[in-house]
TrEMBL record:
<keyword id="KW-0067">ATP-binding</keyword>
<keyword id="KW-0547">Nucleotide-binding</keyword>
<comment type="function">
    <text>Catalyzes the phosphorylation of the position 2 hydroxy group of 4-diphosphocytidyl-2C-methyl-D-erythritol.</text>
</comment>
<dbReference type="GO" id="GO:0005524">
    <property type="term" value="F:ATP binding"/>
</dbReference>
<dbReference type="InterPro" id="IPR013750">
    <property type="entry name" value="GHMP_kinase_C_dom"/>
</dbReference>
<dbReference type="GO" id="GO:0019288">
    <property type="term" value="P:isopentenyl diphosphate biosynthetic process, methylerythritol 4-phosphate pathway"/>
</dbReference>
<feature type="binding site">
    <location>
        <begin position="92"/>
        <end position="102"/>
    </location>
    <ligand>
        <name>ATP</name>
    </ligand>
</feature>
<comment type="similarity">
    <text>Belongs to the GHMP kinase family. IspE subfamily.</text>
</comment>
<dbReference type="InterPro" id="IPR014721">
    <property type="entry name" value="Ribsml_uS5_D2-typ_fold_subgr"/>
</dbReference>
<dbReference type="GO" id="GO:0016114">
    <property type="term" value="P:terpenoid biosynthetic process"/>
</dbReference>
<dbReference type="InterPro" id="IPR020568">
    <property type="entry name" value="Ribosomal_Su5_D2-typ_SF"/>
</dbReference>
<dbReference type="InterPro" id="IPR036554">
    <property type="entry name" value="GHMP_kinase_C_sf"/>
</dbReference>
<dbReference type="InterPro" id="IPR006204">
    <property type="entry name" value="GHMP_kinase_N_dom"/>
</dbReference>
<feature type="active site">
    <location>
        <position position="134"/>
    </location>
</feature>
<dbReference type="Pfam" id="PF08544">
    <property type="entry name" value="GHMP_kinases_C"/>
</dbReference>
<keyword id="KW-0418">Kinase</keyword>
<keyword id="KW-0414">Isoprene biosynthesis</keyword>
Length: 283
């Protein structure tokens, strides 16, 4: 039996460069791991794949992406056994935090260890990308640039650990529907990706916080005015920067002071009954 932490991510930036012939989009994103994580337990059983997760809206069958990851490993490596996967879900579902992708990444790593397959990180990332575009990033984690459809990963200097407040409205958002509504030629405000990378190199957290940018935000915010209200709330309560993560609806605020962040957490927890709040650090 093996137990692994599957970490959530936020996007410090998200740019959509073009739409591809196959329907996917070419992206350029800076990803950052959070302390927030699901816990995945993987156990060897005689045959087949079993999955259990008590969280609402997470499938307990072959449509769970963690199941697909296990199935891929069992078939690809001809394992003469099955696996039972148990997911203790702490990452909000359909939230823009890569909850499913990170579970799948943990399953690939866990099966590799449990059955002593000896695959290195690059090999696991190659398998991961055949299951989902965000999985290669989730296998590596940390601070990274993700390009292509999200699967081409370049490690970046680690972002300094700072307080992060996640504010997740009590509804989920379908990533596919957000991309469908995006009009790429009408995007005016794009992330300054190279400048953000320079800021990571010189550990300039304030530059990063001032230049957070996600081109999907206006699409989700047009549907849900709550997104802009949360951003305003976070800035008013002392966040040094705030944007929506991924396709949303989670909005995060970055803070440079633990006490200010904790106070904001306390106030918003009371005033924002329409959201789930999480106080953590990146890293
Ligand atoms: P991303 O940030 O990669 O776009 P997300 O955080 O917005 O992903 P997920 O939490 O991965 O979204 O959930 C998207 C959908 O995937 C949900 O509707 C859920 O039913 C389904 N799903 C399948 N497997 C899982 C899993 N292991 N954990 C969470 N959701 C899962």
């Amino acid at each position: 039996m093996i137990t692994l932490n599957a970490h959530a991510k936020i996007n410090l930036s998200l740019d959509v460069l073009s739409k591809r012939q196959d329907g996917y989009h070419n992206l350029k994103m800076i990803m950052q791991t959070l302390q927030l994580h699901d816990t995945i337990t993987i156990q060897e059983i005689k045959s087949g794949i079993e999955i259990e997760c008590e969280a609402a809206y997470v499938p307990n069958n072959s449509s769970n992406i963690a199941y697909k990851a296990a199935e891929k490993m069992v078939v690809k490596y001809g394992l003469d056994a099955g696996v039972r996967i148990s997911i203790d879900k702490k990452i909000p579902v359909a939230a823009g935090l890569a909850g499913g992708s990170t579970d799948a990444a943990a399953v690939l790593k866990g099966v590799n260890s449990l059955f002593k397959l000896g695959l290195d990180q690059q090999e696991l990332m190659e398998i991961g990308k055949t299951i989902g575009a965000d999985i290669p990033y989730c296998i590596r984690g940390g601070t990274a640039l993700a390009e292509g459809i999200g699967e081409l990963i370049t490690p970046l200097p680690r972002m300094e650990p700072i307080p992060v407040l996640l504010v997740k409205p009590r509804f989920g958002v379908s990533t596919a529907s957000v991309f469908k509504s995006l009009e790429i030629d009408k995007i005016t405000d794009r992330p300054k990706t190279e400048l953000l990378i320079n800021a990571l190199q010189r550990k300039d957290t304030h530059f990063i916080a001032n230049n957070l940018c996600n081109v999907l935000e206006s699409v989700t915010a047009a549907r849900y005015p709550l997104i802009d209200k949360i951003k305003k709330d976070l800035i008013t309560k002392g966040a040094i920067g705030s944007i929506m993560s991924g396709s949303g609806p989670t909005v995060f605020g970055l803070f440079d002071d633990t006490e200010v962040a904790k106070k904001a957490f306390g106030i918003l927890k009371k005033s924002r009954n329409d959201c789930i709040l999480t106080y953590i650090t990146n890293d």
